[in-house]
Design brief:
Blueprint: E1 2-6, H1 15-28, E2 33-37, H2 43-54, E3 62-65, H3 69-81, E4 86-90, H4 97-104, E5 108-114, H5 117-137, E6 143-148, H6 157-166, H7 180-183, H8 185-188, H9 191-198, H10 205-228
Parallel strand pairs: 1-4, 1-5, 2-3, 2-4, 5-6
């Protein structure tokens, strides 16, 4: 079982969106995905609850409470015994022994950021924290910045300047664009199942195109992670 962690010590950076997207991409290919929820706000549990109401939850996936060391260990051991292919961990805000344990146990680390000065500062701080931890632990874990909510059109001068600040760091080959389908994931559940539910409905033909494009982007993101995991 490979553990991928979405790291951000700031709320609203987009880590849960990235995590939900990766989960949907892997699940759409038949992989079993465990979700380790270290965020005390329980965004993944709320996502599952909303998805079950909309019939857009993939039963091959499961959310595990992991907001203390004991729960994390139980979640990891339980997921391995149940044969999950991947585990996705959602860190909580700030530095802690729990976050350090999750980071040091991961096979790949994803740091999300949007192109605002505050988000860039937080992404750089998170990245620096990760590298210092890995150096102290004498371990090497692939780490990359995932830029999110990129306009489909041209960047503003401010966004371009923010983007340039991240160019010195390892990044995903492609960003996640600003799409309604991504914004709606928390309410509408897993992307691949929401897309499947739109099939054959004339009134949803135009939204379906948006979802199909978004799903393609998720698979590009997933392929990047697969490559870093050696898949």
């Amino acid at each position: 079982m490979k553990l991928v962690t979405c790291c951000s010590f700031k709320g609203g950076a987009g880590k849960t969106t990235a995590l939900m997207g990766l989960c949907s991409a892997w699940a759409s290919l038949g992989y079993r995905v465990a979700l380790f929820e270290a965020d005390e706000n329980r965004p993944l549990s709320k996502w599952k609850e909303n998805a079950l109401k909309s019939d857009t939850w993939d039963e091959t996936c499961e959310v595990f409470a992991a907001d203390d060391i004991g729960l994390l260990e139980a979640a990891y051991n339980g997921a391995e015994k149940q044969g999950f292919d991947f585990a996705l961990a959602d860190t909580h805000g700030g530095s802690s022994e729990l976050n350090n344990t999750i980071i040091a146990s991961s096979d790949f680390l994803l740091v999300p950021s949007m192109l605002t000065p505050l988000d860039i500062d937080e992404a750089l701080a998170t990245y620096r924290y990760i590298i210092e931890l890995l150096v102290n632990e004498a371990i090497d874990i692939p780490t990359a910045i995932l830029v999110q909510r990129i306009p489909v059109g041209r960047l503003t001068s401010s966004q371009k300047a923010s983007s340039d600040l991240l160019n010195v760091l390892p990044q995903f080959d492609k960003p996640m664009h600003e799409r309604d389908a991504f914004a709606a994931m928390k309410e509408r559940g897993m992307m691949h199942l929401a897309l499947a539910n739109m099939e054959g409905k004339a009134a949803l033909r135009l939204p379906m195109r948006n979802y199909a494009t978004a799903m393609d982007e998720l698979h590009v993101m997933r392929s990047f992670v697969d490559l870093k995991l050696g898949g």
